[in-house]
Every structure is written in C-alpha cells, then in structure tokens.
Amino acid sequence: MNIVRCVVVVVIANMSCGDLASAGENSLDWRTESKATLDERMAWWEEARFALFIHWGAYSVLGGEYKGETLEHKYAEQIQRICKISKEDYRKDAASLFRPEQFDAEQWVKLAKDAGMKYVVITAKHHDGFAIYHSKHSDFDVENTSQWERDPLKELSDACRKHGLKFGVYYSQSQDWHDVFDPSGDWKAPGNPAATRGSQWGDPAKCDKAAANRKMFEAYMEKKGIPQVVELIEDYGVEMVWYDTPGAYLDEYAQPFLDAVRNTNPDVVVNARIGAGLGDYQGGPDSPVVFSYTKDRYWEAIQSTLHSWGYNKFDEVSRRPTDYLLRMLATVVSKGGNMMINVGPKPDGTLVENDTKCLREIAEWSRDHIESIHGAHRSPLPPQNWGVVTRKGTDLYLHVFDWPEDGTLRVGGLRTAVTSARLMGSDVPVNTRQIGEGVLVVDLPSEPSHPVNSVIRLSCVSDPEGDSYRLLEPGSQNRFHVTDTPFISGEGLRNPIGVGFRAYMENWTDPDAEIVWKIRVTENGVYNVQFLYDLPNGRPIGNEYMIRIGDRKLVGKVEEEGTGDKALIDAEKQLMRIRRPRRIVVDDLGSVRLEPGIYDMTLKSAGPIQGNDRSKELFFPRAVVLVPER
Asked: Could you tell me if 592 and 622 lie in one domain?
C-alpha cells in the first residue's frame, strides 16, 4: 500500500457521515469524472465476457435448513431472514461453524479457468454481515467468530493472480443484519430496517423511526462498511467490487461507497447495484431468461446453477442444465453483455458435485469454441431461428443450437461478403453461397460438432454489416418474442425484468404504442398467426388489438380463454422455465399469405384501451408465432 492511498484510507475510515456526504459533494464528481477513464477501466472486463460467481459464507453451514424448516425454491443465502434467526443463534448455529477445512482455492480457480472464465467474484460479505476473510473492522468474521486461522479470501485472491484471472468481491453495502439492523427481536417489527421494505426505513413520512435508523446505518457505514471496502481493495488486490440491493438504502449513501473505491484505486470496476445511477456498467435481474435490446456498451447477466445462490441441499430440482447455460452464454454475448455463472459451495469448501460436473462440461465446449466468446461483441445481424451470432473483428461466429436436418443453414440479414467458413472443433471447411439479398446459405455436415452449441466461424472481407430483417423459415415455426426487436414505441411500455415468468412487455396503457418486427420472405407461403400474452392484474378483457403484416390486418380480442393452440403455452412455459401458475393466453388470429419481399409485422391496440380500477393495461404481450401451413 503506497503512502498516498494509506492516508486516504485513514481519512475515509474516520469521517463522520456528514463529512462523507459533504466530501462527496466537494470532491471529484465521480458520476462524470470517472467516465473519462471508463473505457480504459472496462477493457479487461469487456474482453473477458465470462466469469464465475460464488455465494459462500455462514449460511452455507445451514445448507437451506434450520430447525426442521427447509428452503425449497428459496434463497438459502438469506436463511437468517427467512427463518427469522436471531443474531445470537445465527452466530452459534452458522457463523461459528464456518471452517472449510477442505477448501482448495487452486481447484476452484482451475475449474473456472478451464471453463473459459476470465474473472471470479465471491461474496466477501453478504446481507448477514459475516466476512469470509480476516477483517480489521469487525469481529464477525472467519478469524474471530469461526476461530479459523486460514483466510479463504486471501487464498482465492492469490490463486486467481497465479492463474491469470481477475479477482472481484461481492459486498452487501446496504444490508448488514448483524452489525446494523438488529434482527434479534421481531423481524417484522415496525421501523426495523431489516424488515422494512426498500429504503422506507429512512423516510420520515413512511417510518417513525427514520432518524434513528439513519444514524444506525451511518454508524455502520463509517465504522464497518466503507473501511471494509477499502481493506478489501488494499489487502486483497480486489479489481472489481460487486455491490448489491441498492433499493434497501437511500440514494445519498451510494456516493460515499463509490468514493471509497475510486479514492483507493480508481481502476477498480464497480457495478450498477451501488445505486443512484452510479457504477461502471448495467446489471440485469437475477437469472433472466430473455434480454431486451440495449444501447449500453457494458452490461451483465448473472445466472445461478440453481434457483438458490448459496448452498441449498433442497434445490436440485431447480438446477439449470449445462446446455441451458451454454446457450445463455452465447445469447448474452450476442447482445453485447457479460455473463457470470454462480455456484454455491458446501461449508467444507468443496463444490457441489453437479456444479463441478457442469463446469467441466462447459470446459469441454470452451476448449474448441471459447474464441467465439472472449473479446466478442454483439451481433450486427437480426435474430436467427437456429441460434445466435457473435462478432469479433471481421469474423462472425454462428452458434447453432438447432442443427438443420437437411444440412442447409440459412443466415439472414448479412450484407458483407464471406471469404471462408469453418466448423470449429472439427477444423472442417464448409461451403457458403449467396442465394439472394440478405440470405447466405451454409452447407453443413450431417452431424453437429457439438450436441448443444456448434459454432461456425465466418470470415468476412471487412467488418460485417447486417440489416434488420429477420429471415422467415418456411419449414418451421417462427417465434417472434417481444425482446427480439429494438423497434418498440409507446409511452411507458417496458420489459420489466426478463425473468421467464415476466418475459413480456408491460404497462401497455398508450393506445398508440406498438411493437414492430421486420421480416424477410424468400418464397411464397401461408402462415397461421398465433399470439401469446398474459393478462394484467384485474384481468381487463374485451379490448381489441391488431397484428398487421404488410397490408393484412388481423384483429383479436383480449379474453380469459384464448382461441389458439394450447401446446404453444406449454412450449412457452418450458422455454421460459415457468413453474409457478401464470395466466397465459394464446389466440389464433387466422392465416396470412406472404410472397417474397420484406415486411413490417406490427402489434398495436385496435382502439381505445378500456380498463377497471385495478388495471387499464391492454395486455402483457409475449410472442407472435408464425406457423407455416402445408
């Protein structure tokens, strides 16, 4: 630690909250100033694209079970809150027993590296307040509470550095159930910040204990929160700080937490969950299934192998298989994002057997295909029926999820000439030919090179360019999801979170709102039009909507029961991994004959939107499916 940074640490650690707030106002405005070095700071992160996320701590000791209560389909890392465990009992039954004797940092890092991951992020401190390292600013840590002489965080940091991986930490800055919020009493007690929704605990209009709560949080921030962030960067070589749950505190507290990072090491990457619109990159929700188009250059998706993030003995039923995660990785990168896959190790320091198996299966794919991920960027092409596309330089990588039975892969929307094509993993050259404007045909062998995600590398004569017209496949269903297009307009219309059960657009209150998909048709055909949507709260029915394809208008009415093929609802639930009950409706809107050409397919209201006291939304649209009629 150099002299300058040492002085900064002392100053920050001894500031009062008022001093911190004024310092944030009078010092460099990191909201704007740090943007000058943003691209330089994010260079390694953007190149990496793929990372390992680890949730591991005192909660791992309980493994999703406490005194006979089991957490099925629940977050095991939040067992203290869910089971309302007092501080004393949590310390005795969980934190004091966290001694991972079989922990092998080298093994974890090698698994991540072999899988093609370029950085590791681990929970240094989760919401329970327990530090899995030797902290100078709290005795609720592995050294004092667990009485364990080894420092897992230091071992993992050293292993990452040895094997060339970047090292980051998750730090719960806005919640600390042990040192700030007193859960030893009633978790539901009014005014208890640990139980009060969002940041209402600090709002005098919503909480009569707001002033006391703010003093309590500010004391934590000054004595523990900010000093721990500083020591993690200084003592553990942290290169990324992954904050969490910004909605649990007031926006004004985000700036001091950012300043703590920037003043200690301005090169450290910070995620958007610091709150208040700060951070270096945007983060999606936990375990999304679909991703809307974004103009953001830097964004991230996080996926856990289970529903739970921490170790949960009862959550294997929620396991996301390797093929799902591999395809998700390619999809995220094809839209310009990074992906972290999370595992929840056991309390003894070993990984769950199925997590190890998953990482090794990913490593098998990465051995021949990882160049299509590292340093790759979003696709310039429209969505493809068979998979997704990533780009690097003048090369395009076709990630083929559904191998064509006839060996003919049709690529839509490419406007740049191709010089060569090669099937990765087999070193087999393949032939390509142009069969019309915006349509490239790739002749493939009968068998895929990989059972889940085969990749063809197309080398182009220059930086590849594409158009917006999706190629309609005459021999299979064509599913147009609402996140498959950037052409969305309407006041307030938005995609809420991308998680499967809410993978739709909501807040359709504007009668002029519309969603447009652009389509390219290469041969005559007749298509049956099926439309999937959810009913809003209150289930307003009777409103009419319209799908227009070219000059053909197909009108439907929002009803409790649809007129379409119910098998499409089952397919939607499976595709989106929907397990909870949902009111999904499918309507059969009739058929349309399409001749070769390009079309706009537009979804919009067919008139004024009527509603009731609970809802005045038209519907929650999911997807239009064009089914070829033979």
From this structure: yes
Residues 42, 163, single domain; the answer is yes
Give the number of domains in the chain: 3
Can you tell me the distance from the alpha carbon of 167 to that of 238, in angstroms, rounded to the nearest whole number?
6
**Number of other residues whose CB lies within 10 A of the CB of residue 532:** 26
Structural domain contains residue 377: no
- Are the CB atoms for 620 and 508 separated by under 8 Å? yes
The CATH code of the domain that includes 192 is 3.20.20.80
Residues 161 and 218 occupy one common structural domain: yes
What pLDDT does 68 receive? 94
3-state helix, strand, coil in the chain (%, to 5): 30, 25, 45
Looking at 35-39, 56-60, 69-73, which range is the least confident one?
A: 35-39
Question: Is the pLDDT confidence value at 273 over 70?
Answer: yes
R_g over Cα of the chain: 26
CA-CA distance, 78 to 68, in Å (whole number)?
16
CB 90 within 8 A of CB 80: yes
Which of 357, 364, 362, 360 lies closest to 425, judged by CA?
364
Q: Are strands 50-54 and 119-125 parallel, antiparallel or unpaired?
A: parallel
Q: Could you give the count of Cα atoms lying within 13 Å of 452 in the half-sphere of its Cβ?
A: 16
What is the span of the domain harbouring residue 113? 3-372
Round to whole Å and give the CA distance between 153 and 359. Answer: 21
380 in a structural domain: no
Closest CA to 448 of 478, 428, 421, 476: 428
Buried b (16+ CB within 10 A) or exposed e, 54-65: bbbbbbbbbbbe
Span 185-239, pLDDT tens digits: 456 655 567 667 788 888 898 888 888 889 989 999 999 999 999 999 999 999 9
| In the block, residue with structure tokens 């915006």 | 438
Are 129 and 110 within one domain? yes
Phi, psi angle pair for 484, to nearest 5°: -90, 10
Residues 6+ apart with CB under 8 A from 67: 83
> Does residue 398 share a domain with residue 344?
no
Tokens of 329: 């990785």
Residue 507 lies in a domain: yes
What is the residue-wise DSSP string for 296-361? -SSEEEEEESSSSSS--TT-GGGPPPHHHHHHHHHHHHHTT-EEEEEE---TTSPPPHHHHHHHHH
Partners of 587 in beta bridges: 531
The answer on 317 and 271 residing in a single domain is: yes
